[in-house]
Design brief:
Residues 17-99 form the Shikimate dehydrogenase substrate binding N-terminal domain. Shikimate binds at residues 25-27, 72, 97, 112, 241, 269. Keywords: Amino-acid biosynthesis, Aromatic amino acid biosynthesis, NADP, Oxidoreductase. It comes from Caldinitratiruptor microaerophilus. The protein is an alpha/beta fold. Helix content is 39%, strand content 19%. The strands form 2 sheets. The protein has a 6-stranded mixed beta sheet, with helices on both faces. Strands 9-8-7-10-11-12 form a 6-stranded parallel beta sheet, sandwiched between helices. Helix 4 packs across helix 5 (139-151), helix 5 (139-151) packs parallel to helix 6 and helix 9 (263-278) packs across helix 10.
Length: 299
């Protein structure tokens, strides 16, 4: 049984981030700034939850009257087992990053892929009808592959170091396209390989979904041999946002390619979570400014 909503009385209603670890997260700064700007009686806290305590922590969200939560590594997949309901999109991706608490029930959503798409659109980039290459085959790749397939990309190539995982992401993209009523030619290739080089040369959009290039290993790149094969005008998107400009983006900018950093995906997926919690658009500009300020504070 859940504790009534008014258990918190005049105190701010809590929202949480569940992860292990969580000390690096920008989400508390981002959401608390949004709460203040909107005048909401709410507070966002990061909870370090070890894997063995996940079930207890999730059940506590409802019993203690939390409004909702975000879920991050390593819990995005395991959390599905502890929710009352999971949206079809999150079920397809196999991961949840947002939980909505309603009348004691916990509903799991995934806003990662749509957050990525919203950022693309905000940058004036429409992937429909384009050739896309995703580098990596992890959780971010799954969410982004599903979103791109539903958005109508023409071809989607998943380039990964583990062929079986890359093919699984390509298969997920085909299912996402079918569910959305779109069509996509989704395939998998090894990375690195000659096949990957040929696909990159034909790409309009390249998305790095690996952690390669993340601080402190900032001189690494998922494409260490360079970007010489990419066509002019190619959009290079890096989901890494520490540092703001990775080696991949730096080299792409040097070739006059279009570069997009990953902070916007974080902000927009957070704004989508806000919409699910409060039924109104999240204040993107406020959240973005808070995330940037928190990043600067780390330097």
């Amino acid at each position: 049984m859940s504790v009534p909503r008014d258990v918190w009385g005049r105190q701010p209603r809590p929202y949480a981030l569940l992860g292990w670890p969580v000390g690096h997260s920008l989400s508390p700064a981002m959401h608390n700034a949004a709460f203040r700007e909107q005048g909401l009686q709410a507070i966002y806290v990061a909870l370090a939850v070890p894997p063995e305590a996940l079930g207890e922590a999730v059940r506590g969200l409802a019993s203690l009257g939390f409004g909702g939560a975000n879920v991050t590594i390593p819990h995005k997949e395991a959390v599905l087992d502890y929710l009352d309901e999971v949206t079809p999109e999150a079920r397809l991706i196999g991961a949840v990053n947002t939980i909505v608490c309603r009348h004691g029930r916990l509903v799991g959503h995934n806003t990662d892929g749509q957050g990525f798409l919203r950022h693309l659109y905000a940058e004036g980039i429409d992937p429909a009808g384009q050739n896309a290459v995703i580098l990596g085959a992890g959780g971010a790749a799954r969410a982004i592959a599903a979103a791109l397939a539903a958005a109508g990309v023409q071809t989607l190539v998943v380039a990964g170091r583990t062929p079986e995982r890359a093919e699984a992401v390509a298969g997920l993209a085909r299912r996402a396209a079918s569910a959305a009523g779109t069509e996509v030619e989704a395939t998998a290739v090894p990375l690195p390989s000659r096949e990957a080089e040929l696909c990159l040369a034909d790409a309009h959009l390249v998305v790095n979904c690996t952690p390669v290039g993340m601080a402190p290993a900032t001189e690494e790149s998922p494409l260490p041999d360079g970007l010489g094969g990419l066509r002019p005008g190619t959009v290079v998107y890096d989901t890494v946002y520490r540092p703001a400009e990775t080696r991949l983006l730096r080299e792409a900018r040097a070739r006059a390619l279009v570069t997009v950093g990953g902070l916007g995906m974080l902000v927009h997926q957070g704004a989508l979570a806000w919409e699910l919690w409060f039924g109104r658009p999240g204040p993107v500009q406020v959240m973005w400014a808070a995330a940037e300020a928190a990043l600067r504070g780390e330097d």
